[in-house]
Write a structure and sequence with these properties.
globular, 7 helices, alpha+beta
Length: 264
């Protein structure tokens, strides 16, 4: 399958997802306490965001991430599902369609307006006046250390996709841990031997980080911790952590001086 064919398949599936999300939102507006509908909307947005990022629809993935995070807070009981919140996501549907059909269009102003309405709906506050400068969100630095199960690759888990989802949350520094890679004779190429140590600076809550691993959380080793002082983490090329190297060999001894002839 060519990359073009894959994108066409994504477009078809994305349109279907948007229809499913929209129908679930319309149903939810009449039954705001229906947890199954909340989960349906959340998972649809999560899938749309992840697929968009995978196929290069970065603007779609970034915008949908905010909508997904809002419904994640509803799913976790942090905020209530309201008609205002449902309406804000419904208002965003046409914008998502535009980001799918014309991903290179200029939608910055529309995105800002829709996200301002979404944030107001989540907080229960009145929408900001048009043109008002949004407040800068507080940043937090997180340490995320994780290792996938050995059979992750065979089961279809894409580690690079998980790392890209973390990058979508903010600035990342990613270190690959290669210390558990076995010797070549014992290496099984179908198994996942790497671990990762990620430093993430984001304005998103811990729940947004956990949602990156929502489908593999039960089978993996993961530690998520906050770091003391939020600092800007400049994106860098990934650094590979390797096992400690053997001590450097001592320099060869200097050749002995030629024996001096003793006069007789």
């Amino acid at each position: 399958m060519s990359s073009l064919d894959a994108v066409e398949i994504f477009l078809v599936e994305a349109r279907d997802l948007l229809e499913q999300i929209e129908q679930a939102l319309l149903d939810l507006n009449g039954r705001l306490d229906d947890r199954d509908l909340v989960d349906t909307v959340f998972r649809g947005l999560h899938t749309l965001k992840g697929s968009g990022a995978m196929f290069g629809f970065d603007a779609l993935a970034e915008f949908t991430h905010h909508c997904e995070s809002a419904f994640d807070r509803v799913r976790k009981g942090e905020v209530a599902a309201t008609s205002a919140l449902v309406g804000a996501i419904l208002d965003a549907q046409d914008h998502m369609r535009a980001l799918i059909e014309d991903p290179k269009g200029d939608y910055a102003a529309a995105s800002q307006r829709l996200l301002a309405g979404l944030n107001a709906a989540v907080s229960g506050a009145a929408p900001p006046e048009p043109g008002a400068a949004p407040q800068a969100p507080a940043l937090q630095v997180w340490s995320i250390r994780f290792r996938l199960p050995a059979n992750a690759l065979v089961n279809g888990v894409n580690p690079l996709g998980l790392l890209n989802e973390l990058r979508d949350l903010g600035e990342c520094r990613i270190v690959a841990d290669t210390t558990k890679i076995p010797d070549l004779e014992a290496l099984d190429p179908t198994e996942c031997h790497l671990g990762w140590d990620v430093t993430l600076t984001t304005d998103q809550p811990r729940s947004a980080i956990e949602d990156v691993f929502i489908f593999v959380m039960d089978d993996m080793d993961i530690v998520i911790e906050t770091l003391d002082a939020p600092e800007a983490v400049a994106p860098e090329a990934p650094v590979v952590a390797t096992a400690p190297s053997a001590p450097a060999a001592a320099p060869p001894p200097k050749p002995a001086a030629a024996p001096q002839e003793v006069p007789t």
